[in-house]
Every structure is written in C-alpha cells, then in structure tokens.
Request: fold
Amino acid sequence: MSVDISGKVIVSFETEDEDEDEIEISAEEFEVEYLSSGERQLGPENCYQIYYESDSFSLRKEIYEYPAGVLNSGSEWTTENCTVTVDDLDIEIGLSDEQDPEDEEN
Reply:
C-alpha cells in the first residue's frame, strides 16, 4: 500500500514571544504511519495517520482505506498549539502488489 500526499497545509501558531506566526507545510514534510486494521464485509479497513511535529506545534489526521486501494474517509485535523488555516492536501491511496500494511512495519 502507498499513501501519496501532494499540496500543502498552512497553520498559524503562537511563538515563544507570544507573537502570531504562520507557516506553510509542504506534503513532503508530513510523515505517514500505519495505525491499525479491522476486518469488514469487503475486506480489511486500514487506518493511517498523517502527521507533522515541530518544537512549537503538531498536527495529525487519520485516514481510512476501505475497500483496499480506496480512500474512504478521513478525520479532521487534531492540532496542538496551532490552527490549520488552509488545508490544500490531496491524499491518494494506491495498491502495490496487494501487500498487507502490517507486513510493511517489519
């Protein structure tokens, strides 16, 4: 399985000086992590987490693949010490040799 991300997210956050700052985070800066899988009627439903962490803030989003190869849904951004002002990410899930995501962790 592959999770492909393109685009950007813009967040605003408070600096150590208590000033408001804004930063653009490109798709390449996000990490993708496989979280879990559960069996459903059309096969497994896989959950992935897309996240970015810095010293000042963090943000994460869960996405679900069901059935295999189809981006089914996603959660809202969960943020710590920031606010998402622009969400221009394009997320795609692709099949690669029908591998089980749990096997990719090992």
